[in-house]
Specification:
about 475 residues; alpha/beta; five-stranded parallel beta sheet; five-stranded mixed beta sheet
Amino acid sequence: MGKIYIIGLGPGSIDSLTLGAVDRINAGDKNFLRTEKHPTVKYFVDKNIPYQSYDFLYDTKDSFGQVYERIAEDLIEESKKNSSINYLVPGNPLVAEKTVELLMEREVDIEVISGMSFIEPMIELVGRDPINGLKIVDGAEFNGLIVDINVDMIITQVYNYRIISEVKIILSEIYGDEYKVYLVNSAGVKENEKKHLVPIYELDRFEEVGPLTSIFVPKIDKKHKKVFDFNDLLGIMKILRSENGCPWDMEQTHESIRQSVIEEAYEVVDAIDKNDIDGLMEELGDLLLQVIFHSQIAFEEGEFSLYDVTSSLANKLIYRHPHVFSQKSVENSEEVVYNWNMLKYAKRDIHSFTDKLKDIPKLPALMTSFKIQEKAAEIGFDWDNIDGPLNKVIEEYQEVLEAMEKFGGGDERTEEELGDLLFAIVNLSRFLKVNPEVALNRTINKFIKRFEFMEEKLGELGKKFEEMTLDEMDELWNQAKIHKIH
């Protein structure tokens, strides 16, 4: 197998070709160009230097990835036929060049002849110093997870309007339509260089889009910041907990704010029940705050960091989804749940049924009893039909009446019978495929709304609850039911 010389053609200008590149081009070996849509190809034409371009492949494959794989395979085959060949790519071979990355992964003899990348002329054009952070990404594989709003970003390989339109949509969702970015064409080709500072929504309205088009996205200025990411939240919490931060935040411990986790989780559920999307967004932020708060406290105590939290979660998700991240297949969602539980128990060294019951977290009583009954049903400890739980509710109700008559209210034996009744009702709700926690919350909300209706009616009459008899309040309550207040 012969050697493959990988040569950088620079950003565009023939003057940017290095002496090493010129020597290689004129060495007499076969020249293969990833694309001839590059200004330095004029050098080959003027010097009558033969070359072969891979541009034809872009119309024969479904994705850029397939094109790059095919180019790498063809170059390896050509290297087997020749003692050495030249493979020429735009810019620097080691900057944003997937075909080079693929070749370097193979067992082939490679030598890189460097060239100036597009980065230098880009930063000169926009006047930004990369020392403060610069991220370079491929426009053909661009997605929102790549974005870092706290550093400058160059999106290269924005070949056509389809790519630039997709990039525009993603940027708009993160930065907003009006955020200004640079659309740059032919950076480094002095006679053709163009830059446009435009709002994101105008990105796909320019005619000059081609192989040498890139987008420069400035990082969000801290002084006028309205968009924040996860790292910003960590920084804010660190400040709040610092010596010059907030006295209240500085005093908190895992124990002092543990109740907030429960409260914020319930407020998230409440927003979902109310179909309040704006409220859901805000409440999810409040719940996320609890995660960040506890993580910062733990970091200060040398216990763990937020990276430990996110890594633990990511590893758990991958481990418990072998049907997604490995070759295991599943038939339906029920099998997914079963596998999830089996993997969870294996990881926690849980084997007996009692261990499984003890593993259920200490949730509110309705939720815990619901989960315990689900576990019991999994091993067949369940009624055959709904008559069983219905009769059990009646039986437990009678026992509550007997306990009240025999022991009175406040007695622990009456308390026990009332607990049995509630447990039976939860079991009935399971048979009816109703979550008792959700059902009770809906009733609570309905109760409050009906009282609101009653109070409004009293206000129209110039009265207050304290002035009403029970019969009068019952009348208002019935009106609220008639008006379907729920």
